[in-house]
Amino acid sequence: MRSRSNSGVKLDNYARMVQQTILCHQDPVTGLISESGDVPHAWVRDNVYSILSVWGLSLAYRKNADRDEDKAKAYELEQVGLDKVEKFKYSKSTTDCLHAKYHTGSCATVVGDDEWGHLQVDATSIFLLFLAEMTASGLHIVYTLDEVDVVQNLMFYIESAYKVADFGMWERGDKTNQGIPEINVSSIGMAKAALEALDGLNLFGAKGGPESVVHALADDIQRCQSILSSMLPRASTSKEVDAGTLSVISYPAFAVEHIDIVNITKEEIISKLQGRYGCCRFLRDGHKTPKEDPNRLYYESSELMLFENIECEWPLFWTYLILDGIFIKSPEQVQEYRDALDSILIKGKDGLRLIPELYSVPPDKVDEEYNNPHTVERVPLGKCPMKWGQSLYLLGNLLAEVHSIFFSVSILAETDEIKQLLHKHGISSETLEDIHPIRVQPSRILSHIYARLGRNQRLGLTGRPYRHIGVLGTSKFYFIRNTIFSFTPQFIDPQHFYLALDNKMIVEMLRIDISYLCSRWRMTGRPTVTFPISQSMLTDDHKDIDPAILAALKKLQDGYYAGARVKTGKLASFLDTSCCAHLTFMDCGEGKAATFSLCDSVLWPICFTSKALQNSNILTFLLTDVHMYLPIKLFRILEVNLYVEYILNHYLTSFSTSLNLPRNVDGGIDYPALVQMLKKCRSLQDQADILYIFYNDKGMEWDTRLHGKGWKVKRLLSELYEKAGRLKHWGLIRMVCGMLHRKVEELDEACTDLLAHQKHLTVGLPPEPREKTISAPLPPDKLARLIDEASETNLTIAILTQEIMVFLAMSMRTQPKLFSEMFRIRIGLIIQVMVTELAQSLKCSGEEATESLMNLSPSEFNNLLLHILSGKEFRVQSSVRSAGNVVTPVISIHDKIKSGSAKDQITSVSKPKHHIKLVRADTLIYITRYRLPSIEPFQSSAGVTMVRDSRQGQWLRRRRLDGALNKVPVGFYQKVWKLLQKCHGLSIEGCVLPSSTTKEMTPGEIKFAVHVETVLNRVPQPEYRQLLVEAILVLTMLAEVDIQSAGGIIQVDKIVQMASNMFYKDQKDLGADDSLLEKDQSNGICRLLYDCAPSGRFGSMTYLSKAVATYVEDFLPSGACALQ
């Protein structure tokens, strides 16, 4: 018999350690491992981590090949609560989730749904991650197709981790330990890792067939990645740093792709949490500290400060840092933490070295540790060994011993005529006939197909909820039932939302999606984008390609677009180099009859919408002699003053006067006669007016019987929407879209993207309760209802809120710096700022500016929004577009033209083109009849009239924009936190920000920033809000002065009032006119102060500094300088 090798002997020693510290606690029937002999509870997370050393040891034996030890016990959780998986996919409720722990002997639940923080997405995710890794290593874990469907639905369970607030890996959620769930980096990162590991994996291993393959969607994975990059090094809203994120940035998840973020997060953990015995879990963690009351489950917010500097230290995290050093190939780091860990291990029976759960400060040494952190000798507490840490320690010892994206674009022409137009410009394209047998479908069809994935009627599993497929999902070829499919991007689908009707918006979304593809593509093969050119992408006369589309196509053809290398060509030629997916779950098999009906119903050759509309027989409204309404700036007839609280009955009065509505004998509207009037109506404007009366009086389901039974108001509005879309009449499109209550399909995802980037949202105009705050993800129907409620039946605000939310989410992905130091985005105020900017640029009323805003194309609307977010100055160009006998308004937003003059305009208005004079007079009368609910702009004083040939009004505009966008200087909230430690609180408009918040929250917490913003947002005027921010900024300098206290509760608004009075007196002494020194009626502030530069002799900060010095004079040191 040959002797054992040295490596084999070492493995035998590790096997003995594994057996005596971990496997000896394993239940012989269920295989579950209990944390202690006293309590037969098995935690999912701990069990998975505990078995890693067993699996690692088996792999080591396999590699060493001395003995057949690779048959180590594989782990699998049985008795998964399938009903909870199904409910949670839709509800995301904390009571519909899988349990976090089970009975060791029976696998039964041990705690009620609402008696424990069960919702821990990271626990389910790490189970799936290692199920994938162990399967890939050769272990046979899944045996039946039912189990395959269970795993697939568990993937659906975790795929929305980026928007699910759970209790995290420490089972307590918010660090106040009051049972408040929050979005956790540890859960998002582990879910991303699990989805990546399982995507395309055959759970039966090498012996499996197509039906045992599971799938994950690339877009869900990349959403998780995006949120990770945004949140880190923060761990959650309440934890600015958490040692648990080591499992995300390094082993086992490796979920973060940017090494800079990984390094920053690791440095934050080491610098803020590391001690002599390990790392704290997070700041102010009271678990098992001497100051923790073991008789209470929850903490009081004010007592969190008691735990500072005495948090327990966990050796567990040094095992993560050992593994991290191994994977980043840093032997110095590995040796450093192995030596540190060896010095604190507990020696057990037979000389085994054990890792205790944690080290705590002795009760009699608490004061000493308070005064001199990390100096007191600590004592081990909790479980010993902690099997989670022991397993990783053994695994670390085992391991210690022993590109640019090139993407393809296929250009498809709807007709041969379009193909010829493209050819004339040197652009190669194909028609649907040319690409046969490949079939092209819109992305919504792919969504329907994936809705079948994981469906199992026998188990009551419905599969993936219907959601849209992102660009990563549509950039692949799909093999479905022996047919090759390609899917067009969602942004180009006109049924998606009216944004796809704007060619400039299509080009912008193409740029964003391609940029996103470049940064997020991680699959084998090139991404392939199928880009169809339809009739709607032609010029108004249909004789050429739209200039915006043509310019984009030429860039694509040149081989470089949006920072990526591009290859255009025939679709079939890309098959060999592209990423391909085989959707085997759509193949023939048992229980797949419903799938065949799906294929027959949705997998048809693509029809371009514009062509379908042209050939449709149901479009019964006449389009001849259509006169669209023009911007109201072009005339002054029957001007009406409309504001946010617009009364809908005013519509009917206006309609009745101008339309001469038919009346019955009782004097009311004769609706049957009005239907006949609609039938003969030749103007889209008149049709919209009449349909609005039906919508308002009769409702959407009222049958007009215009051409027989079934012609309901909803159907007629849908036709009007399609025709307005073809004519690019944006004001009418938005208004009809609002009446139809159409919602952006991914509205909830846009909202979630913003929330997941730690931005709270408000919808509706201030003040509360009309303005509604969104601080957590909402289902689509609830989000839509909230927007409608906040809009108070104002269709203008409701539809613009949706559009802005989508554009904000797009900007968040492409230009995240625009949102720095913004933690709450107030969409209602943004709309009001947009109206104000247009009103001042066009020199018109708020009513006219509202209509101009509604008439902006989506691309120009987004352009205006970006200018406001960035604070860039711009100019407005107003004109009209004429196509045949149809006249539509055109308003364009441009960067301000720079010149050498010191008196450049902030904005300017180009004169409308001369052909406006050719429009018939009666057309102008029609426009005044149909009015949208308007939005009141911010008030300007007589002294600050925003004159366009001077600098006057620039600082008012700057403060107004920053106030509406909740922008503050960098480090503002941390400075406020320090200031609160020198006083009892800050008061603004009667709302107090108490100093006690510093006992609950740390300076870097988003919760603290949001708390400060809540107080500031009590002020409805954004320019006044910014003066308050400036005043607080001056006050924060007191935190740097050597004073014990700055007084009790500081009245910030009083300080601003004092500064205003000083400014007013100085201006009066200089002979300023009373009209120039008009005061704001709501707060008494001199309006001219709003427009003062911060610095200078008469600057706002000068007066605020004087006011602060006067206010706190009694508290300043006696040696302080006298106020000049």
Query: What's the Cα radius of gyration?
Result: 33 Å
From the structure provided, what is the oligomeric state, counting identical versus distinct chains? Answer: single chain
Tell me about the biggest sheet? 4 strands, mixed
Mean pLDDT: 78
List unreliable stretches of 5+ residues. 1-5, 63-85, 602-658, 898-931, 941-950, 1119-1124
Overall number of structural domains: 5
Strand arrangement across the biggest beta sheet: 11-7-13-12
Residue fraction in strands: 5-15%
| Helix-and-strand structural type | alpha/beta
* Discrete helix count: 40
Total number of strands: 23
Shape: globular
Walkthrough of the structure:
- Pfam families: Glyco_hydro_15, KPBB_C.
- The strands form 8 sheets. A 4-stranded mixed beta sheet has the order 11-7-13-12. A 4-stranded mixed beta sheet has the order 8-10-9-14.
- Mean pLDDT is 78; it is low at 1-5, 63-85, 602-658, 898-931, 941-950 and 1119-1124.
- The chain contains 40 helices and 23 strands.
- By secondary structure, the chain is α/β, with parallel strands linked by helices.
- 42% of the residues lie in helices and 9% in strands.
Describe this structure in a few short sentences.
The protein is an alpha/beta fold.
SSE inventory with pairings:
Layout: H1 6-21, E1 41-43, H2 44-64, H3 82-91, E2 101-103, H4 121-136, H5 145-158, H6 185-198, H7 218-231, H8 246-249, H9 259-273, H10 316-327, H11 331-342, E3 346-347, E4 353-354, E5 358-360, H12 366-371, E6 379-381, H13 387-401, E7 406-413, H14 416-424, E8 439-442, H15 443-450, H16 471-474, E9 477-480, E10 483-488, H17 503-520, E11 528-533, H18 547-558, E12 560-561, E13 564-568, E14 580-582, H19 593-602, H20 609-615, H21 649-659, H22 671-680, H23 684-697, H24 713-726, H25 730-739, H26 747-756, E15 760-763, E16 772-774, H27 780-791, H28 795-814, E17 824-826, H29 827-842, H30 846-854, H31 858-870, E18 874-883, E19 886-895, E20 909-910, H32 921-929, H33 954-964, H34 972-980, E21 985-988, E22 991-994, H35 997-1000, H36 1006-1016, H37 1022-1035, E23 1049-1051, H38 1052-1069, H39 1087-1090, H40 1100-1111
Parallel strand pairs: 7-11, 7-13, 8-10, 9-14, 15-17, 18-20, 21-23
Antiparallel strand pairs: 1-2, 3-4, 5-6, 9-10, 12-13, 15-16, 18-19, 21-22
Helix pairs in contact: 1-2, 1-13, 2-4, 2-13, 3-5, 4-5, 4-6, 6-7, 10-11, 10-13, 21-23, 22-23, 23-24, 24-25, 25-28, 25-30, 26-28, 27-28, 28-31, 29-30, 33-37, 37-38, 37-40, 38-40
